[in-house]
Structures are given as C-alpha cells and as structure tokens.
Amino acid sequence: MAAGIASGLAPGVLRAQDLGSPTIAPATFDAFLDSLLPGFEGVPSASELGVGAELRAEIEPGSLTERLIAAGTGFLDSVGPARFADLPPAARDEIVDWLAQADYNEIPGRFYHVTRLLAVGYYFIHPEALAGLPLEPAPQPLGYPPPWGTA
User: Fold this and answer.
1) Using CA atoms in the order 93, 112, 109, 71, what is the torsion angle rounded to 10 degrees?
2) Greatest CA span in the chain, whole angstroms?
3) pLDDT confidence band for 151 (50 / 70 / 90)
4) Distances (CA, A) of 148 to 27, 136, 137, 139, 144
5) Average pLDDT of the chain?
6) What is the tens place of the pLDDT at every residue in 33-87?
7) How far apart are CA 128 and CA 93, in angstroms?
8) What are 43's strand-pairing partners?
9) Is there a contact between 92 and 31 (Cβ–Cβ < 8 Å)?
10) Are 73 and 24 in contact (CB under 8 A)?
C-alpha cells in the first residue's frame, strides 16, 4: 500500500459500540459512491443518478444498515486531513482501496462491502448507467436465439 493517508489505518478502528445513532453524511456518502461508481465518457456517476439519495430514502431509520453507513461515513470523514468529499480523488481512492481489503468482520470492511452491494444494485437500475456502454440489448421479451431457445 502506498505511504499515503491509508497507510495509517489499522484493523479494529471501529468497534460495535461505535455504531451509535449518528446520521449519514450525504456529501461523504455521495463521494464514496462516486469512488465506487465514477462517471466516465457517456456514463453518469452514482451521485449524478441520485443513488445516494435513493439508498438513504430506502434505509429504515434506526436500522443496523443505517447505523453501519453512518459509522462508515463518519469514519471516512475522520481519516484524512479534510472531510472525505473534500479530499482529492487519489486520496479518496487510496482510502477506498484500503476499505476493500479490510476484514469484512470489522466495521470498515463491512461498510465497504454492504454499501458496494447496495450501490451497484441501485446504480444499474437506471438506464442511463448502461447508455454509454457497448452492450447489445437483451433479447427479452423475444427470447434467446437458437440453439438455446426459440425466438
């Protein structure tokens, strides 16, 4: 790992008792989601599609998921010299890379994996997320061409 911001992170930085009832920091959450699902030529980022707002609206208040994401966004804001959303993209990417490798049974790793799973699902329900990608349209409702099925 590079000797940057993430080099000072260690396992166990958050514990179960750290899952109090803080709120999710929207700007931090959106910046994190954009690190996971950045926009590029012809494809909008997660925040441009409103994925963070959709997720926050669907998460049950007071649930473990809300508490996990709130703890995760609080963690993200605490590790750098500035709030996560205000860090340069390279610093954000370094922190996200560290989270991706963190132990799933620790809060940073769990935050990364749970949020990534939710975000990908919400992101790809938007047709705009696929518009700039060189994908052939799905054959449904006509079915798959032979030899797998009949059209």
Assistant:
1) 100
2) 60
3) very low
4) 47, 17, 17, 12, 6
5) 82
6) 999 999 888 889 999 999 999 999 999 998 999 999 999 999 999 888 999 999 9
7) 24
8) 40
9) yes
10) yes
Distances (CA, A) of 139 to 99, 125, 135, 149: 37, 17, 12, 11
Matching residue, tokens 């958050």: 14
User: Under 8 Å CB-to-CB from 125, ≥6 apart: which residues?
Assistant: none
Cα 4–chain centre separation: 21
Backbone angles phi, psi at 9, to 5 degrees: -80, 145
Omega prior to 147 cis, within 30 of 0: yes
* Cα 3 to Cα 151: distance, rounded to the nearest angstrom: 56
For 96-121, b/e burial (b = at least 16 CB within 10 A) is bebbeebeeeebbbbbbebbbebbbe
